[in-house]
Amino acid sequence: MEIKELCARAHNTAVEKGFYGTDGCGDRNIGEMLMLIVSELGEAIEAHRKGDWAELGMARKLYESSLKNDDYTRLFRDVIKDSMQDEIADAFIRLADLCSYMNIDIESHILAKMKYNDGRETLHGKKY
Ligand SMILES: [Mg+2]
Q: What percent of the chain has pLDDT over 70?
């Protein structure tokens, strides 16, 4: 999936699930959206502290399985939900929704920033 598609899909799902009001056109509080992304990272560190780590390859296997609805949900909850990877995925999904909502071409910004970083000094001139 390309980044642009990820952003559109995350935003469309958020609209469908009512995060943009009943008509799907409601305004969002940008500060709240950013803090919800931070909260997912907070959940990720708690998962890491608990050693809650999904088995390597399990997400792809589950996603590509023929399981549907309740069976998919049940297995997802058993093997992935609340793992560190799941919380990082939540942060990405929320970031993708925000980028789509704010019409940010994040792929271009990531590429431009990485090229900029390539030219920076070791540790970007800082101690760590
Ligand atoms: Mg979460």
A: 100
